[in-house]
Amino acid sequence: MKREQADRINDHLLDAWEAIHKARMAVAGLAKAERVKFDNLLHEVVSDLQDKVLLQIWEQYPDLIPPENDRTPPEICSELTWNDVNLPSSVGEGQLDEIILSLLRSQWQKVAVLLTNAGKRCEQLGLPISHEVIAARLRLLSDSDRIEGVGDLRIWGGSEVRLKD
Q: What is the pTM of this model?
């Protein structure tokens, strides 16, 4: 393969890699059975993409390997703010806070993990609450200093939360 061909193919494959990463972030918000199924499938695709395709190109043209610091920054998962939320009449703020606080620990945990667990808890309780609404409440709790958060809480896989010390 010629250098120009390798460069073009490499660019398309790296775009695909980023798109798969975004899909894996979206999968984090699914119910457990679906999340496990899709995450395992996407993991296989990423492994094959890297091990079977990209490495072939990179072995021939090592200068095409992207530098660590050249990767695209993570994307925001939700811009929803608490001011824009309209809770169903069957759900109160205190009830949602209770769910969130019951799942937090003194150790840091990824926002994506907390959202998944809180979503499951809401589902078990029959509460029609989306991950976006839970994330908006989590941001309010962090902004009002009721819990600790690090990173941009709008980027679910790139931020963490915990109970205040």
A: 0.59
Domain that holds residue 45: 3-67
Tens-digit pLDDT profile for the chain (165 aa)?
999 999 999 999 989 988 887 787 677 555 657 766 887 788 788 888 888 888 899 999 999 988 765 555 567 889 999 999 999 998 999 999 999 999 999 888 999 999 999 999 999 999 999 999 999 999 999 989 899 888 788 889 888 899 987
Output the DSSP codes for 145-158: TSEEEES-TTSGGG
- For the chain, the domain total comes to 2
Q: What angle do CA 103, 156, 137 make, to 5 degrees?
A: 55
